[in-house]
Amino acid sequence: MKRSILPVFIFSLLLCTFASCRKTDDVPLVHIALISPDENTLWRLPDTVSISFKITGDQAPDHVTVRIVNRNYIPLFGEKHIDAPEMGVELSETMVLHALHDTDEAPYYILISASVHEEYQNNYFPVKLTNKPLAYQGVYLFTKASVNQTALTFYKSGMEPVLLARVSGNFIASDISDYYQKLYLITDIPARLRAFSLTDQQQVWETEPLLPYPVYTDVKTDADRIYAGMGNGQITAYSGLTGQPKLVAERLTDSIPEKIAVLDEFVVGYYRSRINGYRSLVSFYKVSGVKKHRYPIDFELVTFLAHEDPANVVVVGNRDNEGLFTVFDPYKNSFEETVQPGVGSIETACAAWEGAYLFATADKLYMYQYDEHQEKLLKELNDIPIAIMYEHVSGTVFVAYSGALVLYEYPQMMEIARIEPENEIKGLALFYRYE
Is residue 116 part of a domain? Predict the structure, then answer.
């Protein structure tokens, strides 16, 4: 893991300190009994779970915190906080559990922490967590249906087209929540954020950006929330289920968040100045929306990509007509070594597998191994690609041009399918379902 172990050490030290507030042979502050689930229950993720418990004793806690932690006692899914909990009755909290990352190591525990007059007591109850199998279902293609209109068409794995919707507005960006089985789409003219149920094949809600400068710039999903960048200089988190605003990050009045990345603890925005084009990466706390850092950069961002450490993000951009790769750590507000492959400007890029990424120039497609700083030419292209994606279940590379979507089998890069819609392609999204 790239991040320093210092935060983990400090967190572990705090937990030990809390536990040491009451020695093992002391009378406990309170008695906490887990009602449900049973200890060592197996949860298959993603899932929404309920945790019920009862508190008894002579002193009522000031507050109780419920978390699910890994072997390093790091919370995996945030926390639930109960002030002045009632004694002797069943207390219950619901938690949304996203899929585990590779770095979320077992064993896992439900951690219920009680505070009584600034003394802490931690109670650990073992549980088992595993991810559900993930199966590829098909690809959603966004095309320009007519003036200020976008069509959403789903192509199943057998490539049979099914029109999902035709909506007003020009395509800006989209993302899919595997947890909620919903597709989120942002458009311009009019500026809208819409949610579509992939189970019922229909739109379920829509919302508009905040004033002033009412436009959307980017959208990303994260567990039960979706994050959208807006022209007024803010990033807003919405409920993925209802579309209700849940968090509005601190506003930057001088800049616009053109791209966003959602990490474990932070939301990172690529901001551009309204006045002089000044560019920076700005980090906000996911819990509060408070700005932590602002880091000026001297290159144009192409995209953010997932890193093997979910606390960091891979940054792909262009400087002086040459593409670059680097890793940004929002906690330390710093970059790793920046590498430029030296093959020209990057048009688009995507994550492939751990440590490997695909990127395309105007006429070539490459595979890039970040740790080894080596690129490999995969395919010469006949046109400028607008997007590429890697389907990891079957090992298929999707290359989207304005007039066609072409599928290649990796690593031979033989063409295995082609879609040529009547209208111009503006974007695509791969759809997976947990079985």
Answer: yes
